[in-house]
Amino acid sequence: MELVSIADVRAAAADLAGAVVRTPLVPAPWDDGLWLKPESLQPVGSFKLRGATHAVARLDPAARSRGVVTHSSGNHGQALAYAARTFGVPCTVVVPEGAPRVKVDRMRALGAEVRLVPPARRLAEAERVVAATGATLVPPFDDRRIIAGQGTVGLEIVADLPDVDVVLVPVGGGGLSSGVATAVAALRPSAVVIGVEPALAADARESLAAGEVVVWDVARTYRTSADGLRTNLSELTLAHLRERLDRIVTVGEEEIAAAMGRLAREARLVAEPSGAVALAARLFHAGELPPGRTVAVVSGGNVEPAVLASALNAPGC
């Protein structure tokens, strides 16, 4: 299987110039050796805008006229809706029932047609729309264009902190972690890239240990508050992670909530549960991590107000 290269990531960066926010590295006020990469500051509140914009930018005019479709719990759907609106492309997003209302409302506000279906049927429904309309399927992570676009996060990390030692990145479907690991491995080979996922949705860690994609059903993954990390890996993302990711650390639900609270109170950053897992690893599992200059990717900030309020009242660390 051909993996995404650093040349692919650089080509994506050229496509994204001026279309997405080049997020800064923010020093953590409480930790001299930690920087935060706040992808929550993107116009749609998450890193997903990078891959979605790159994918739409690569479509030819005929394909754009037929539209794009995806399946998403929220952040990728928002990102694709935003990118499609930018390019004047029709967009349909198939959303699993139970997705955060704030994310669904924003997709509709961006002009996407939203179709709510049972979680296990979201891919099948997206494929049905493709067959009926001729639209292009833009998957949330199982796509080389998506991985290359997300890899620009890693490109920027190394540009802004050339002597970075450790990069902590959330793992759901594996698009972000695959792209970041690709860029960091090429540009800073001595750095270690560590994936972080909830213990209640630890299919990626199990997949890496087994050497094949291990699927956790929705009854298991939907136990975690980190809704953006409930997705299983694909063969494509597993191939990237096996080659380029050092390992995976898992974090608990209370740790995720505490990390959200720390980000809001002390870094003035709003993070959704999925966006706080990398920091949770640094806060609560430092003994499992290598020493050195560390970047934690805050992947998104699209959080329900009640969830954020609960995190702000959670025990500190």
List keywords for this structure.
alpha/beta; 15 helices; 10 strands; single chain; globular; about 325 residues; four-stranded parallel β-sheet; about 45% helix; six-stranded mixed β-sheet
Please provide a written account of the structure.
It is a single chain. The protein is an alpha/beta fold. 46% of the residues lie in helices and 15% in strands. It has helices spanning 6-16, 48-57, 61-66, 75-87, 101-109, 122-133, 144-150, 152-160, 175-187, 203-210, 218-221, 235-244, 253-266, 273-284, 305-312; strands spanning 26-27, 34-38, 68-71, 91-96, 113-117, 136-137, 166-170, 192-198, 247-251, 294-298. Strands 1-2-10-7-8-9 form a six-stranded mixed sheet, sandwiched between helices. A four-stranded parallel sheet has the order 5-4-3-6, with helices on both faces. Strand 3 (68-71), helix 4 (75-87) and strand 4 (91-96) form a beta-alpha-beta unit. Helix 13 (253-266) crosses helix 14 (273-284) and helix 13 crosses helix 15. The chain is globular.
